[in-house]
Amino acid sequence: MIAQVALSFVLLVAAGLFVQTFREIATRPLGFQPDSVTIVTMNMSRTGIAAEARLSEFERARDAARAVPGVAGAALSFITPFTGGFTPPLNISGVPDFEGRLSGNLISGGWFTTFGTQVIAGRDLTDRDAKGAPRVAVINQAFARKFFPGASPLGHTISLYPGGARAMPPMEIVGVVGDAVYSSLRAQVPPTWYAPLSQFDLPEFTQVLFQFQLAVRSQTHSPVASNDLAAAIGRVNPTLALTFRPLSDYVKTARNQERLVALLAGAFGTLGLLLAGLGLYGITAYAVTVRRSEIGIRMALGAVASRIVRLVLVRVTILVASGAVAGIAISLWLSRFVASLLYGVQPHDAATLLAAFIVLASVGLVAGAIPASKAARTNPTTVLREG
Which of 221, 226, 240, 335 has the greatest number of C-beta atoms within 10 Å? Predict the structure, then answer.
């Protein structure tokens, strides 16, 4: 019984940790507002449009979407949250020791407004940051914290593909925006840069520029009807292949695995608690039956009902306490193996251990109280006559 209680305690602790992990992930600030945003994937791989004209065709589709009634904003991007990454090599002025790759995105003007990402310092990218204009970039707070701690990053430059045939002119950092989650909900937001799409004119890039993401924000809490967007974009180019998906679906999909783990852990914890409760009830009821004569004699000698109840519950308390102590030791030992699966909670969280003990003790009290109450109603005369 002690082993069963210990196992139940371990399952309860695991359930508590994974439920807290899901709660932390579900309430984690995303850095953007997914509600009311629809992601339109536009693909022109079968349109036959020349490489140098593809970007302007995507921009025409964006302008058409902006004109749809009920649209608050629309913007293009190379990638959107939870759809992948873009990590070309780069260097940063003022950071001579850095050599590597950082996450980036190519966006059109109004992208941060459409996604609801806050501009912290400097300015946003606009449609005026077009080809031929001074090359600019915006970075997130994680970028600023890592490479410019305690200093302003504005005015520094970022150079993509440095030192090679594909090297691009430096881009001046003109703004800092809030951190936004792009990949795993568990991972920290990496340093990220954003550049105007129209200024990224490498031939290698435009040759393979077949698909872009169009983010459309509604003026209301409901996404804009896909039929209206399809009709507006179709009038610009009916050969574009379009796919519509609410941005909230991307977030929901990213959370599904965490939700499943939390549900499974909760189910196993509940099952373990139920088995422990039934086991405690069964062993206590059996003990009361075996000691029925002893209880009758005690009551005949003057023992009150409360003393009989206490006598029975002491045994349950010893079982629960012993199982809980063993469960705590096992939980602390197993914590090293689940630490990587947790987020926002420590594997040896004291509050979780305490909560598991309280729940287990409450179930044990209820399981023991039923046979204890039955024992307290024993008729000593009947027991002695039977004896």
Answer: 240
